[in-house]
């Protein structure tokens, strides 16, 4: 099968995000200028640089109570900071609860029954139960073609890793089985890993 996106695919559901899989989930926590906390998952997320460490996530829809975007991007525009909370299999239901179309006044931490912890380098809350958290300072927001497509880039200024996920000096993802996003409404978890040596 071949299709041009501008002409449509003719399928019951868009296959695009089922092709680019698995994707890590950026569970983004922010705090607005009035001190209200927000938490939402984004599956267009990844690390993009080592030195200095940098990440990105993309927001691709808008809410009626925000100016052409969603709470996360609006809050980051105002405050210049955000935190990425890594999603373990154990946190999947809480993550899913925070994906709802809640109003800007809703604190998703409270709504999903999640304990907050303070960040060290930025004024923001983080998910205490996450296996790792990346505290970030905004570097730029890029608007992409499309009605509400924004990519947020941030430099990582602080890193939290749970002690029980450390094995012989390595951050061991099999200790918490990361949740990954597939296409449609499907997810997967990473339960085993293997290593490959690069050619010399």
TrEMBL record:
It comes from the Bacteria. Residues 18-177 form the Flavin reductase like domain. Coiled coil: none annotated. InterPro entries: Flavin_Rdtase-like_dom, Split_barrel_FMN-bd. It holds the Pfam family Flavin_Reduct. One of its GO terms (molecular function) is FMN binding. PANTHER family: BLR2425 PROTEIN, FLAVIN REDUCTASE LIKE DOMAIN-CONTAINING PROTEIN. This is Flavin reductase like domain protein. It comes from Roseovarius tolerans. The lineage of its organism: Bacteria, Pseudomonadati, Pseudomonadota, Alphaproteobacteria, Rhodobacterales.
């Amino acid at each position: 099968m071949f299709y041009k996106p501008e002409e449509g695919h003719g399928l019951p559901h868009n296959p695009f995000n089922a092709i680019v899989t698995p994707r890590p989930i950026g569970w983004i926590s922010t705090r607005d200028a009035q001190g209200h906390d927000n938490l939402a998952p984004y599956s267009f997320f990844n690390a993009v640089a080592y030195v200095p460490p940098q990440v990105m996530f993309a927001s691709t829809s808008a809410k009626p109570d925000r100016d052409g975007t969603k709470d996360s991007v609006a809050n980051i525009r105002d405050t210049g900071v955000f935190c990425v909370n890594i999603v373990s299999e154990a946190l999947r239901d809480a993550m899913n609860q925070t994906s709802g179309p809640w109003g800007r006044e809703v604190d998703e931490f409270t709504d999903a029954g999640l304990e907050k912890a303070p960040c060290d380098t930025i004024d923001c809350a983080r998910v205490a139960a996450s296996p790792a958290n990346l505290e970030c300072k905004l570097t730029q927001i890029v608007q992409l073609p499309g009605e509400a497509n924004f990519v947020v880039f941030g430099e990582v200024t602080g890193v939290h890793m749970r002690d029980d996920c450390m094995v012989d000096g390595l951050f061991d993802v099999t200790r918490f089985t990361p949740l990954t996003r597939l296409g449609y409404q499907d997810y997967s978890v990473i339960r085993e890993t293997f290593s490959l040596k690069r050619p010399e």
